[in-house]
Amino acid sequence: MAPLDLLALDTLLSDEERQIRAVVRQLVDDRVRPEVPQWYEDGQVPVRDLAREFGRIGLLGMHLTGYGCAGASAVAYGVACLELEAGDSGVRSLVSVQGSLAMYAIWRYGSEEQKQRWLPRMATGEAIGCFGLTEPDHGSDPASMTTGARRDGTDWVLTGTKMWITNAPVADVAVIWARTDDGVRGFVVPMDSPGVAAREIRHKMSLRASSTGEIVLDGVRLPADAVLPDAAGLRAPLSCLTEARYGIVWGALGAARDCLHTTLDYAGTRQQFGRPLAGFQLTQAKLADMAVELQKGYLLALHLGRLADAGALRPEQVSVGKLNNVREALAIARQCRTILGANGISGEYPLMRHANNLESVLTYEGTSEIHQLVIGQRLTGLAAFA
């Protein structure tokens, strides 16, 4: 039995949602699974090739409307993220950063000229985007960012450094957030602009099948129309993070499902003490607990997706999903590893790769502690961030 068949959760999806899931699952099976162990080991991933393939089936910015985007539902986007992360968290991150951060920022806050220039090419994967908010000294506290933008005549001049930026080393365009005299503003920055440099971050132990970089902005001169006209203050970049976190709520379940599916297969065939591992009570207790948590996480993600499609999803509700589903997915990956014993650390199985990736997913787009404080503020009415 497949892990998500336990409660017949397929019956909760529409025919269109199941069809989209099947298309993405097939692409992951054909394109990602055969190669991702080597990508992970090498720390290299063919971002541009993948982006074009994802663009061909409408995955990039799929929940946005117009400009070549598919206009799919939030739930359809969620099940796509689940299937992508069942392949690898880094592959799902490519799609999330492209669509829910870079494209969404331009789509939601950009001028019509910015949208026409970038979104159609980003939707096809011809142009790669990234999202520059995090800095070397400011991750969970973006209000303390030091990257600045100043006026010089009609131009803007940007100076600063962004860190841990997915897609940065291969990106064509970055959405950069900087402090100005009028507060935090967003800028659309072509990566070939003079003064822009991107450096690949090496020696990662997690998300190795993802291109991650540092962006250095050294007096980058941009025209007046580079600013996102409808983005003012931190509320704008934080709304983009909410979009990306929603995809993570679903994506983490994909990593957990892949671990549990692998473990069920292994436990059914691995013989110890004259019987399959799956025949021992302790093993079945572990499998049962993991399956229950996976079902609960799926129901939570689906509920949030339906709220999003109804226009009723709130940021703290996304925090509930991200906090719970990533935390439980990581616990499932670790527990599955114990059932495989020494084989659990082998690259022949995806468990350690998923567990290592989920350590990053636990941290990015808001650490567990940040999401606990978001939920705590909702419950108490008191902010405890400082």
TrEMBL record:
InterPro entries given in the database record: Acyl-CoA_Oxase/DH_mid-dom, Acyl-CoA_Oxase/DH_mid-dom_sf, AcylCo_DH-like_C, AcylCo_DH/oxidase_C, AcylCoA_DH/ox_N, AcylCoA_DH/ox_N_sf, AcylCoA_DH/oxidase_NM_dom_sf, Glutaryl-CoA_DH_mitochondrial
Domain spans labelled Acyl-CoA dehydrogenase/oxidase N-terminal: 14-126
Keywords: FAD, Flavoprotein, Oxidoreductase, Transit peptide
Superkingdom, natural source: Bacteria
A Pfam family that the UniProt record links to this protein: Acyl-CoA_dh_1
Acyl-CoA oxidase/dehydrogenase middle domain segment(s): 130-220
Domain (Acyl-CoA dehydrogenase/oxidase C-terminal): residue spans on this chain: 232-379
Required co-factors: FAD
Family of this protein: Belongs to the acyl-CoA dehydrogenase family.
Protein name per Swiss-Prot or TrEMBL: Acyl-CoA dehydrogenase family protein
Organism of this sequence: Micromonospora sonneratiae
Lineage: Bacteria, Bacillati, Actinomycetota, Actinomycetes, Micromonosporales
